[in-house]
Amino acid sequence: MDIKCSEKELFIFNKIARAAESLGLETYLIGGFVRDKLLGRETKDADIVCVGDAIALATEVAGHFLPRPTVSYFKNFGTAHIRVDDGFDIEFVGARKESYHYHSRNPDVVPGTLEDDQLRRDFSINALAISLNIKDYGRLIDPFNGREDLSAKMIRTPLDPLQTFSDDPLRMMRAIRFATQLDFSIHPVTLQAIKQDINRIKIISQERITDELNKILAAPKPSIGFDLLYQCGLLHIIFPQMVDLEGAEYKDGVGHKDNFYHTLQVVDNLAARSEDIWLRWAAVLHDIGKPATKRFEEGHGWTFHGHEVVGGRMVPGIFARLKLPLNEKMRFVRKMVELHLRPISLTKENITDSAIRRLLYDAGGDYESLMQLCEADITSKNKWKVKRFLDNFRMVRQRCAEVEENDRIRNWQPPITGEMIMQTFGIKPSRPVGEIKNAIRDAILDGHIPNTYDAAYAFMLEKAKEFKLEPVI
Ligand code: CTP
């Protein structure tokens, strides 16, 4: 074999080769599996292309395994899938020539040769094939110099890029995604075609676009992809709020930093600390409220007061537009955006126990994530400044650890709930319930009363007098 496979993979490919031989079908390994093997990357699933009926091949291959795996297939597309050996996925497709209609994603599919099939694939590095045929088993078939492009770290289309992107405009995002994941460059002609064709991304479903965005964000250095998306103009179409962060304005000789590139750096810093994709989204969005809150104040320079609140409010709309989940993941991202200035404000002055308790209470179980985001938010080029901030954060962390040790705030709930307040005063959900509840919480967090039921109950009775409420039980 021209690629290095494990014993288990060789065992599986052997069975596929025997099944193909018995049906008299020319068969090849193709796509990401071959590419990743040549790069020495981990592989998870394999694509098989055969010249002929892929569903028949998958069915024959399934018969070579015990227990026999289920064959799932799409008759219309002529594709099939089986899962063997506890989780190794194999996709089968018949070699084809394809031509897409300009305004839709429905291809005219006509059976073709291996070379036709390779030619219609997205990039030279994804068109590499390995023969599974007796006559040249294991030989690499590389008509578009994909191997050279792998060594040159280059993304390039096998056809004229305008044709390749016209066949499936999502490939523009795929080019950028592979460049980001693999740390490759996009060939200038291919990149130029993306710039020329950006508007065609509009025919692609948001789910497919966001899938690529998530893959870019999950890469070791997501800034590569976001910068490419920005440079070629795709970001302006798919995520305009992020583009609004661009630029550094000057007035009276006073400038502010370019918040787009600052954000990219924060995302990279965070990616070096955490794999959590939702925390990475929080990094992307942490300053998203800055354009809307930007002011120039005489004597102060540029300010972005309240950008964390405005940014937090923008999160649900952005998630909805990108078709990201509108569930606790979104609420987590919103919370991180809203809280991202809190730890830094604690490093400025004398830190009181009550300020620390409030931070622990508001961050709750997400305290560690918040601290990681804040540490990633330090992007100064002045290394003394960076050191000072990091030292301050270490101090905040230490104080938080001490206060948490004593007060156990992170998973704490006040001893009196809204339900208890309603029962005590015989009232329905209303403003006084919320105000009394918050007042009890604040009194405990600020250390005015001890964290006990009795103290909280006595405080509740006092506070309730402001609303002319008397206990009924
Ligand atoms: N392909 C393509 N055009 C697309 C999608 C896929 O030409 N829009 C081809 C490529 O040859 C690709 C193969 O189909 O290698 C499999 O696609 P996919 O599973 O999406 O990508 P992989 O290359 O396997 O990479 P990954 O699993 O990392 O997404």
**Name of the CATH class of the domain at 7-150:** Alpha Beta
DSSP E strands, number: 15
> Which structural class do you get from the secondary structure elements?
alpha+beta
What ligand species are in this complex? cytidine-5'-triphosphate
Q: What is the overall silhouette?
A: elongated
Query: What is the CATH architecture descriptor of the domain at 7-150?
Result: 2-Layer Sandwich
Detailed description of the structure:
The protein is an alpha+beta fold and 473 residues long. Among the domains are: 7-150, Beta Polymerase, domain 2, CATH 3.30.460; 418-467, no CATH class. Helix content is 53%, strand content 12%. The protein contains 24 helices and 15 strands. The chain has helices at residues 7-23, 32-39, 54-62, 114-119, 146-152, 161-167, 170-182, 188-197, 206-217, 223-232, 234-238, 240-243, 259-273, 277-285, 290-293, 307-322, 328-339, 342-346, 353-363, 367-376, 383-407, 418-425, 431-445, 453-465; strands spanning 27-30, 45-50, 72-74, 79-84, 88-94, 96-100, 107-111, 129-131, 140-141, 154-155, 185-186, 250-251, 254-255, 295-297, 301-303. The strands form five sheets. A seven-stranded mixed β-sheet has the order 3-4-5-2-1-8-9. A two-stranded antiparallel sheet has the order 6-7. A hairpin with an 8-residue loop joins β8 (129-131) and β9. α1 (7-23) crosses α3, α7 (170-182) packs parallel to α9 (206-217) and α13 (259-273) packs antiparallel against α14. Bound molecules: cytidine-5'-triphosphate (CTP). The site of cytidine-5'-triphosphate has 10 residues, from α7.
